[in-house]
Design brief:
Elements lengths: L9 H8 L3 E7 L7 H13 L3 E10 L5 H4 L5 H30 L3 E9 L3 H9 L4 E5 L5 H13 L4 E4 L10 E5 L4 H9 L1 H6 L2 E8 L8 H11 L4 E7 L5 H11 L4 E5 L2 E4 L2 E4 L1 H8 L5 E4 L1
Parallel strand pairs: 1-2, 1-4, 2-3, 4-5, 6-7, 6-9, 7-8, 9-12
Antiparallel strand pairs: 5-12, 10-11
Helix pairs in contact: 2-4, 5-6, 10-11
Family: Belongs to the universal stress protein A family.
Protein name: Universal stress protein
InterPro entries: Universal_stress_UspA (IPR006015), UspA (IPR006016)
Length: 294
């Protein structure tokens, strides 16, 4: 039986024609997402002609039975106030995203999802599974931003871009890939393909002195990227700091990177989630936009 395939090469064309769908979770309680992450998300989505989906997460706090609440302060009123604050913040954040997107001519959809406070982070991860990419912020003095980021990076199955607490400076022209030959790093490179494809330059960064790594590993990845039509080169830096996350980011900045691509490492131990050194360092204080994939 002969099949006339009229769609040869169609998968690549379809991939290029598909509109990317970016997810922006907006926290409302106990701390609200910043206006800066909304601005960065809109700007970033605009660079890549993506559709941005803002999702405001409002909280419902279980009411304490009267027998207990009578022993405490005016608990029902406190709960009502917290839920009202959450709803009001959601409306403000969604309105801000709507206005910024309209001004930037970026396609935006918005919705509000109600969840309980203990399930807030799991809800964010579940919502992120529907989209190509999550856009996140990590602010050192707002611990909940990191908890949400960890939940999405390790629980959604999707890549995420973590923005530092500063405005996005410009287009992502120079991409730096933190390469150690691991499965997570390979996954991150694959997830970063849309950005690698549009970057003017890609640097493959390997660290020496951090873990055993075949000498040509980073150079080999650069060769493969060049063969794919990417302007790529390999570079090596020495690991001399106690914080590998900081040295990777500092080296990327010294190379004038607009974005860092890296794998996210984490495992469970004694019911606690333990992050790899580089992952922990980046989530503690991102210095530039970082695409992280697990």
């Amino acid at each position: 039986m002969e099949i006339d395939d009229c769609n040869r090469g169609g998968s690549r064309e379809m991939e290029q024609d598909m509109t990317a769908q970016y997810f922006l979770p907006l926290a409302t309680y106990p701390d609200a997402s910043s206006g800066l992450i909304i601005s960065n998300a809109v700007t970033f989505a605009g660079y890549y002609s993506a559709h941005l989906h803002a999702c405001a997460l409002t909280v419902a706090i279980p009411h304490i039975p009267n027998a207990w609440s009578s022993l405490l302060l005016d608990t029902p009123k406190m709960i009502e106030h917290a839920e009202t604050v959450s709803r009001d913040r959601a409306a403000t954040l969604v309105s801000s995203a709507t206005n910024l997107a309209a001004s930037a001519e970026v396609e935006l959809s918005s919705r509000t999802v109600k969840t309980t406070l203990p399930l807030l982070h799991d809800t964010a991860a579940t919502e992120a599974r529907f989209f190509d990419l999550a856009i996140l912020e990590c602010i050192a003095d707002v611990p909940d931003t990191r908890i949400v980021s960890e939940a999405i990076i390790f629980g959604s199955g999707r890549p995420a871009i973590i923005f530092p607490n500063k405005a996005l400076a410009g287009p992502i022209d120079h991409l730096v890939i933190a390469w150690d030959g691991s499965r997570a790093a390979a996954r991150a490179v694959n997830d970063a393909k849309p950005f690698i494809r549009k970057a003017k330059r890609v640097s493959v960064l390997s660290l020496t002195g951090e873990k055993p790594l075949p000498e040509p590993s980073g150079a080999h990845l650069a060769e493969i990227l060049v063969a794919s039509g990417v302007n790529a080169s390999a570079t090596v830096a020495r690991f001399t700091s106690s914080s590998i996350g900081q040295i990777i980011q500092q080296t990327a900045l010294e190379l004038s990177a607009d974005m860092l691509v890296m794998g996210g490492f984490g495992h469970t131990r004694l019911r606690d989630f333990v992050l790899g050194g580089a992952t922990d360092g980046v989530l503690h204080e991102p210095l530039l936009p970082v695409l992280m994939s697990h």
